Amino acid sequence: MTDTSVEDRPTGADASKPRLAPTDIRNPDYFHKVVDCQWACPAHTPVPEYIRLIAAGRYSDAYMINWKSNVFPGILGRTCDRPCEPACRRGRVETDPVAICRLKRVAADNKDDIRARLPRPPAQKNGKRVALIGAGPASLTVARDLLPLGYHVVLFDQDPHAGGMMRTQIPKFRLPETVLDEEVGYILDMQPELRLGHRVDSLKAVLAEGFDAVFIGSGAPRGRDLGIPGRKEAAANIHIGIDWLAGVAFGHITRIGRRVIVLGGGNTAMDCCRSSRRLGGEDVRVVVRSGFDEMKASPWEKEDAMHEGIPIHNYLAPKAFTHANGRLTGVVFEKVAAKYDDKGRRTLVPTGEPDVHMECDDVLIAIGQENAFPWIERDIGIEFDRWGMPKVDPVTMQSTRPGVFFGGDAAFGPKNIIWAVAHGHQAAVSIDKFCHGEDIRERPPPNVNLVSQKMGIHEWSYDNEISLDKRHKVPLRELDVALKDIRTEVELGFDRRLAWLEAQRCLNCDVQTVFTSNLCIECDACVDICPMDCITFTENGPEDEVRTRLKAPAINPTQALYVSDSLKTGRIMVKDEDVCLHCGLCAERCPTGAWDMQKFLLETAQAGTACRSR
Amino acid sequence: MTYLAKPKLHHPRLPTNKLGYTRRDYEGAVSTLCAGCGHDSISAAIIEACFELDIEPHRVAKLSGIGCSSKTPTYFLGNSHGFNSVHGRMPSVLTGANLANRDLIYMGVSGDGDSASIGLGQFAHCIRRGVNMVYIVENNGVYGLTKGQFSATADKGSKNKRGVMNTDLPIDLVGLALQLGATYVARSFSGDKKQLVPLIKGAILHHGAAFIDCISPCVAFNNHPGSTKSFDYVREHNEAVNRLDVMVPREPITADYAAGTVEEIVQHDSSVLRLRKLAADYDPHDRIAAMAYLQQRQAAGEIVTGLLYVEESAQDLHDYLGTVDKPLNALSDAELCPGAEALEAFNAMYR
Predict the structure, then answer these.
(1) What is the CATH number that goes with domain A4-28+508-603?
(2) Predicted complex ipTM
(3) Residue-wise pLDDT tens digits, B71-107
(4) Secondary structure class of B51 (helix, strand, coil)
(5) DSSP class per residue in A188-215
(6) Could you state, in order of their start, the residue ranges of all structural domains in chain A?
(7) Which residues of B touch A525 (CB under 8 A)?
(8) A342 touches chain B (CB under 8 A)
(9) Which one of B1, B11, B76, B276 would you mutate to disrupt binding with A, by most A Cβ within 10 Å of its Cβ?
């Protein structure tokens, strides 16, 4: 017998070198990583699962999957930082990812009354008392997870209404108050004890009340100031961005000057400039030290601002505020350029060109936020690092004092809502275990289900036809209407028809290609049909080398290779997960059922008896 | 078969050839054959070969008869000419087309039923006339479309799916082709594209009658332990005499081979066939020795594969007939009907 496979083996395949081991698909992480969106989501929301339900018109079911995982589907469907979208496989297969975030909103907009499906607090409480400081997304998540378990939860906040930064920093034209009130209301309906409207000035005092656990979700409430000449003299017309937004949110501020300069390039700056446009600002401009691409604001937020006629000026560093007779007259900027050193680190250096003076009536400073914990005594066992941040375990969210937990922006500095939710879930698990005397470092495994989607010959329980549509744009309200009232929502959201079309762009990455080595007869049918050239039958070898000699070289090292056991001919099956369409044609063309399409559903464990060991 | 068309999306870094086409541009409609059919692998190999040779799809005519194999031209080269003829009559249609337009690349795709049973006579005469073509038989040893009866190429003693033994002797199409004067003869296996793709490329570049017998397991009816045309049996008894790399144009040998193991064959169109010898004493230029070798190895139960015979300076039907270089279908009225005077002069030659 002539073993052609040996004869054709490339010279690089040396038997002494490490060879690829078969993929262990029993490890939940393997298929979880294939679902790029879910893996990228801090709360690990099962994205394709709810997108299919939206396509099927089952909006309430889609909403409940979201609600369970990320607590605020209607809010996040409008405001999320969407880490899932840059990760979306569709973005690698064609150009743009699926509009996951706005599909989430579709579920929220079109659902029926779901209140009957929400958990209720039991009549019999469990006797444990937990304090939540700050009533923002992190604390509300902890409350939602613990209240149905019978905990007595006490919510503290300085503001008169719960919601935290979702209420004080996100303008109403992006997030209508009704949506916020509804989703915060679902949690308040579970009847936590509310202590709103006054600040907590001493953690010691809270601890003295004898809570079984304390969670601190107080956010990053201090806006960074800009100490340049003229700051004091012109103080009346210079505002800190997040404080100004809060003033707008609570109706204390209703007007701003005709000419406004917003300093900073983050999402807060975008909210400031767009709010200004609605409160009398006609000549509103954003001025940023860095280049356009390096700005911290999400690309879509920059787009939205520019759409409203707000120019963004880059590479201008503020040097001084100019003023006359105690009134602000403008800002002087120095022109800078980006220089990179050998290590790729950027510094902004003056170009030497003449300074630029921009006239304005008001300035909003949105150059960053800081944490501040003056109310936490330093002698109660909670250690802080040299940046003034608490030392927090990133898995358990516990501080150095047992029973005191942190989450959201208060834990690791400013992030976003979806991270706050993820922290809240993990903290709730820790608190539940802590209150039951268990080791909080033992984390509960996720709930995983892997089941075949085969319904019959060439029939699958998911829609495996691949849509060729490009990403659909979310319709917006006309500009002149949108700019008239700060409470008018700009985005109209997808209607049901557009939502269906956009949902069809989802590749169903959770429907996994599962390979059973001992059924394979190596007929090449899957190799020939695969539209993306993902599958190769080849000799084993070191991963780096195997990656180069696949049918399409696997040059994206962040995406796994699915490797089979050794087959009859001594070769292995290697599938590059990178650009698989999950169309199931490999399974349709497989004569022996060696390939099967199986839906992988992973739900992270949440607080409750299931996550406890006894 | 599948109900879905193959998605149009392709790998973001799919290479293009000199014409700017990707391999996907050479595909046809989605196959309606059984899942796992060897024929689909042969279609994929033809697609690969045409892509790699930068062939313009409109320069190819694919012709077939009847049967599973003869359905396959629908599944590759969707932008080429096609003709699905009567059962076993593809060789005549191909010969006629070739006579009318010698400029196209002719690809005759047939099966063991179409060529070894109903079309055996047509097959024989097409080969012996030396029609310039690629004649591929997708040989699975059974009549798949009628539920798996033995075909004329099934080995004596092999069993069908229900365990019944074949009592008739097989027709060896490679032996026939050699005996009838084919000038490029190869045998390959659908499960070994590394061998098959270069053999198809060599056949396309060959000037003359090129014949490829490609064993192609029928997964539905002939891929069981009693079969001699199953994936397992062919893999176990496959004896490749050489490995072919096709090169156009000529490039220096860069791979490191032992002396005397590589032979370069320059074809009619100056394309180069580079043969790596696997059986040391096998000479692909000796027709009679090749026939004897094949008979011996077959008797020993082996399936000999590779480029079995090639005649680099072969001639084809047009050379034999002395036709003009211009395709006959492109000749103008003036050329075809030179007028009364020319007729008079012609007739005068015989007076």
Answers:
(1) 3.30.70.20
(2) 0.91
(3) 999 999 999 999 999 999 999 999 999 999 999 999 9
(4) helix
(5) HTT-PEEEESS----HHHHHTT--SEEE
(6) 4-28+508-603, 35-116+468-504, 118-221+371-435, 223-368
(7) 35-37, 40-41
(8) no
(9) B11
